Amino acid sequence: MVTGDKTLLRLVGRSFVGFEQALAEQAAAFEQAHPGVKVELTFRDPQALYESTIARAELASGAIDVTLTLTDWLPEAMQRDLLVALDPLLAQDPPEGWPDGWSPSLRGLQRDAGGQTYALPYHDGPMMFIYRRDLFEDPREQADFQARYGQDLRPPETWSDYLKIAQFFTRPEQDLYGAVAAGLNDAHNNVYDFMIHTWSRGGRLLDDQGLPIFHEPIAIEALQFHVDLFNRYKVVPPEAKELDSVASGAYYASGRAAMMVNWCGFATMAEVPGQSSVVGKNGLGLIPRGDSAQGVHTSINVYWVLAVAAGSAQKELAYEFLRSTASPALDKITALNGCIATRYSTWRDPDILRQFPVYATIEAVHKSVDSPPPIPQWPAITEILNVGIDDALHQRKSVEEALTWASTQARQLMEAR
User: Fold this and answer.
1) What is the pLDDT along the chain (417 residues), one digit of tens a residue?
2) How would you write the chain as a 3-class SS string?
3) Alpha carbon distance 285, 358 (integer Å)
């Protein structure tokens, strides 16, 4: 698209201050290298982004050239031919270091069943255990914990340890809670937390026939624990039921929570001067496991990618923006703006490691990750889970009733398609 004397390259992505700041810098670098190009950036919240670009197929309309999109949505987008297969462009002019400059776990979810690649990684998860190291290492806190529980205060190995520590640090009169979580019904962290709790107890989402089994005992136990953190034990702030992932990350960075399980990008946000009250006070570790012999340390592997819209009239220029943004220098810009960069070169950069300790842990976490089922129906199933989990969290239904309903609805959806 040409506007005035410049070619307009239109990018649509998720609203988040880290994305907006990083992409603004990366767009400016691209414009400097391409004087005849203007990059237009538009940002929407996750649900609106999915509804407009994929559900309503705006990616095929010609109104978008580049999209910042989520790997959860890619099976549907690829099935509906909403994105451009990048293989010929990657073969002709790949980003520096492609593909070995990225973890294999960041290259698989954007490939279809035939092995074609439809996107480049931009912002990584995974979820991690993040905690106030200054509180955990405080001699007075350690002595009080030892006196109360007869054990050392240390990062939790299991979910029962997590609950005990959360109860210890919950002090509303001091404006401090033991943990913070994102309970908002936005089909994002509320669903991902349920998945993490289920996997970490040895559970699964689909049976051997690929049908949902959210109503199995392990999944019920998992969601009950999560719901109890809010309602029974009250170790998270009351307003957490209305917080999304970004707001819960900001709550932690304000110094009002001792722990959280959240995207590791919020660990970097907690280390940005001016945006955080706990700079230099944070620790990171593996997500707690279930208490039974089936329990495992795990994390969720979903990430944000840049892709070329199928309807773009300037696909080669759009790909050039992807390639530019994936360069070592511009990937580092992603990290410096509080997002999680995706290249090994950035993860191992001494300056980045000094400022953002999360990068010292990220490679280890990526060795034990799981992902949502790579099926086109998953976004619609996520919306069903969103409703069921929110009903349980707000105690409109019991956990068992909510998950039985979600399983039934999800199975009906899969059978109808």
Assistant:
1) 666 678 999 999 999 888 999 999 999 999 999 999 999 999 999 889 999 999 999 999 999 999 999 999 999 999 999 999 999 999 999 999 999 999 999 999 999 989 999 999 999 878 999 999 999 999 999 999 999 999 999 999 999 999 999 999 999 999 999 999 999 999 889 999 999 999 999 999 999 999 999 999 999 999 999 999 999 999 999 999 999 999 999 999 999 999 999 998 888 889 888 889 999 999 998 999 999 999 999 999 899 999 999 999 999 999 999 999 999 999 999 999 989 999 999 999 999 999 888 888 888 888 778 889 989 999 899 999 999 999 999 999 999 999 999 999 999 999 876
2) CEECCEEEEEEEEECCHHHHHHHHHHHHHHHHHCCCEEEEEEEECHHHHHHHHHHCCHHHCCCCCEEEEEHHHHHHHHHCCCECCCHHHHHHCCCCCCCCCECHHHCCCCECCCCCECCEEEECCCEEEEEEHHHHCCHHHHHHHHHHHCCCCCCCCEHHHHHHHHHHHCEHHHCEECCCCCCCCCCCHHHHHHHHHHHHCCCCCECCCCCECCCCHHHHHHHHHHHHHHHCCCCCCHHHHHCCHHHHHHHHHCCCECEEEEECHHHHHCCCECCECCCCCEEEECCCECCCCCCCCCCECCCEEEEEECCCCCHHHHHHHHHHHCCHHHHHHHHHCCCCCCEHHHHCCHHHHHHCHHHHCHHHHCCCCECCCCCCCHHHHHHHHHHHHHHHHCCCCCHHHHHHHHHHHHHHHHHHC
3) 9
